[in-house]
Amino acid sequence: MREKRTSKPRRKSGRRHPLATVALIAIGLAVTGGAYAAINSSTATADTRPVASQSTIEQGEKLFQANCATCHGMGAAGTSAGPSLVGVGAASVDFQVGTGRMPLAQTGPQAEQKPVQFTDDQVKALADYVASLGPGPSIPADHLTNGGGNAANGAELFRINCAMCHNVAGAGGALTEGKFAPALTDVSGVHIYEAMVSGPQSMPVFNDLNISPEDKRDIITYLKYVQDNRSPGGFELGSLGPVAEGLFIWIFGLGSIVALTIWITAKSN
Fold first, then answer.
1. Which in 12, 30, 124, 251 has the greatest CB count within 10 A?
2. Superfamily (CATH H level) for 142-231
């Protein structure tokens, strides 16, 4: 009788299906594209204005060439006197020009705020022109800058991210090399938001991945609360903080007590 041959199990070759690599690439592209679209959609919520017309962009270009090209170049590509503005976005231009910091009056450690040199329409035209040169942060929507957020959350975020330079009450403070963090007591919500997304001077950029648009709204809400509700305890002492206020009490308070004690002792003799 013939013995039955037992069939040995086939070994797996370990080779992938030819379409497996293509499928993995397609899945990777889909995930990457979805994440990119989600990020773009979250950052696009700050834009409230319609697409600029060609006539507005042309008007902005003329204004730019007449007032800004000396430092930033005819195509805003930058020169030795000024940086490139390609990709800074409309928010940066609206902040710098809308607060009077630009055009720069004189060179110094940083551009200081001064009376605005252009009308609102001209500022908008300049912003639209620079925005047309490359993608960048847009001017924020009204609902993000009108102070309708959570002041308590904004206060916590401000203390963590901003108070080390601007003071916990937004009173400003000195920095190195003659620079300073300006006071935020009289700054509009739009310009506060634009400063966060554009990072002027020594300020870091807080994009939507660092601080979400809603959290930026909460920070603005807190600053507006501080502006509208002054110190209920009496003199603010410039809102310089507990060290300065304690020093004031130590010098003037205890000094007054010592002087009064000496005066009473002299009278009793």
1. 124
2. Cytochrome c-like domain (1.10.760.10)
